[in-house]
Amino acid sequence: MLLLLLGLGLCSGFAVPIQTAINSKLSLYTRSPFYAATISFGTGTIGLLLINIVFNPQLFNVIFSSQIQYTWFLGGMMGVIFLSGNLLLLPRIGASLTVVTTVSGQIAMSVVIDTLGLFNVSYQPFSTLKGIGLLLLLLGVVLMNLNRQSLLDKQRSSRTTFWLCIGVILGCAPPIQTAINTQLSQSIHSPLFASFISFLVGTLVLIIITSII
Q1: Which residue ranges does UniProt annotate as crossing the membrane (predicted)?
Q2: Which of 123, 146, 156, 160 would be a feasible disulfide site paired with 152, CB 3.0-4.6 Å?
Q3: Closest Cα to residue 149, out of 134, 161, 167, 163?
Q4: How many other β-carbons are positioned within 10 Å of the β-carbon of residue 14?
Q5: 61-104, pLDDT tens digit by residue?
């Protein structure tokens, strides 16, 4: 069972850079990362809507239930931040560094959530091995950026460093989103419907953003 879950995690990880690359191409046509993100979220929302209509039609009234904590809906906003940020990062630092920096942020934030027991996540003590892992991630980011820095002038190099830091910060969003969505999933006993709510909120937020800018 553990191997199956690890395999699913790896497959999910493979999908992220592919999604980012496709959405980056889409943003070239829409000329806006927010329009591209809206299309991406909207497509996911429609897909999850159809799936839940088939498998969970009884859960649609849960949105109006007083038992739901609406802070859980912040998961969708975290998704918007991460996806839109990736669309800004990829053309500036490339696919590899985009993935490495955001994954570094994800792992670092995951350790923080586990260590502090945030979002009702089970407490997991910090260990030396976790610390070594975080240092190795940082080393990986530095090594992958060395060749790029040698080819760029000082000004562009400083800009790259700025975007690398932004990538790490953006990477903090998915663990928060996952923790929040997990609470929602446990409350309504349906990960599919929790995903639908997250995508729906994200789509609505992006529609508002694109209507303003």
Answers
A1: 34-55, 67-89, 95-119, 131-148, 160-180, 192-212
A2: 156
A3: 161
A4: 10
A5: 766 665 667 666 788 889 888 888 887 887 888 877 888 888 88
Domain limits, the chain = 22-54+70-147+154-211
From CA 78, how far away is CA 98, in angstroms rounded?
17
Separation CA 120–CA 145 (nearest Å): 36
Secondary element (H or E) of residue 114: helix 74-116
Q: Is the pLDDT of residue 47 over 90?
A: yes
pLDDT of residue 61: 74
Residue type, 40: S
Whole-number percent of the chain with pLDDT over 90: 8
CB burial string 134-161: b at 16+ within 10 A, e below: eeebeeebeebbeebeeeeeeeeeeebe
Phi, psi of 108 (to 5 degrees): -60, -45
Contact 30/39 with Cβ under 8 angstroms? yes
Cβ burial of 209 (10 Å; 0-12, 13-18, 19+) is: middle
